[in-house]
Amino acid sequence: MTLPTGYTKAEWEPIVRKGRKLVKQKSSIQFSLGDLVIEALEGHPRRWGEVGEVVELLAHQIGINSATLRNHYEIAKQWPEDKRRTDVSYSVHKVLAYVRSRYIMIQKDPYDPISKENRWTENEAQKVANHNFDTPSNKEERLARTRRLLHSDEDAAEVVKEMITRPEVRSRVVADPRSRNILREAHREHWRQVDEELETEAELAPAEDAEEVEEFVEEEEPLVNYKEAPLEILRLIGAFASFFVSLQRIIPEIHAQDYNEETKAAVLDNVHKARMLLDWCESAVKTGRTDMDKALASLLEDEEGE
């Protein structure tokens, strides 16, 4: 084993063993996540686009990026459990995932010139994968080769930016509901990060700058004296505040082009009901009459019956 300058073998080997143990644990989790998708799809045949729907929903509900989960699923499919090597990292399995002779090839450790050991590393796997490129004979093999070549996120991003300048490519991407949703998520995530960075910069700004800004901020008198307002009014204002916040969070996520007419009708029906309730509230506050008209009473009875 190659040692860094200034280290003894006794000092360095425990660090390497600990690191390899951590990599093994991470690899196990990555394969387990991929196996989880396989398990979820078992008994529920899905086409390509429908698999994406399952992966996206599962990723959202377990708290992981959908593209990451989809990648773990694709790699797990290429490596059945009995073909994997627990002492070889997930990243090596990923690089070799579309090499035809991978099950035989992974059994023999290549020589690593850096550590001077016979063991699989990502660099050695890349050499093997590049050497074993076959001429793609179908769409799946062409995609497999592309995934191997675009192993780096940086390379993949550059190619995507170049490809979406082609009108036909753009058209096909935006025509796919899953792709549109991914782009929307990426857009929201980008601006969320920008907002966080701006907030961080504001918190780190010198105190004197903050004082200067405060000089130009005029304090507005509250519309309601919360100490004297009746409880029912405070509850009503609170209900409106919650309603406003919820809608501000949800409405930007709407992508109407992906909804069928039944889904749209269900939402618009609730918009109609909300308007009737707001009219009732406005009338009660202005006139003091809290009785509801027959149409609204009938509507609410139908809701309770459902």
Structural description of this entry:
This protein is mainly α. The protein contains 14 helices and two strands. The chain has helices spanning 9-41, 48-62, 66-78, 90-96, 102-105, 122-131, 139-149, 153-163, 167-175, 177-204, 207-215, 231-250, 261-287, 294-305; strands spanning 111-112, 117-118. The protein has a two-stranded antiparallel sheet. A hairpin with a 4-residue loop joins strand 1 (111-112) and strand 2. Helix 2 (48-62) packs across helix 3. The longest helix has 33 residues, at 9-41. The protein is elongated. The termini are far apart. The relative contact order is 0.05.
Topology:
Layout: H1 9-41, H2 48-62, H3 66-78, H4 90-96, H5 102-105, E1 111-112, E2 117-118, H6 122-131, H7 139-149, H8 153-163, H9 167-175, H10 177-204, H11 207-215, H12 231-250, H13 261-287, H14 294-305
Antiparallel strand pairs: 1-2
Structural class from helices and strands?
A: mainly alpha
Radius of gyration: 29 Å
Please bin the fraction of helical residues.
55-70%
Low-confidence stretches: none
Give, in spatial order, the strands making up the sheet with the most strands. Answer: 1-2
**What is the N-to-C order of secondary-structure elements (H for helix, E for strand)?**
HHHHHEEHHHHHHHHH
End-to-end gap: 71 Å
Beta-strand percent range: under 5%
> How many H/I helices?
14
> What general outline do the C-alpha atoms trace?
elongated
* Mean pLDDT over the full residue set: 81
Q: Biggest sheet, open or closed, and with what strands and sense?
A: 2 strands, antiparallel
The count of strands amounts to: 2
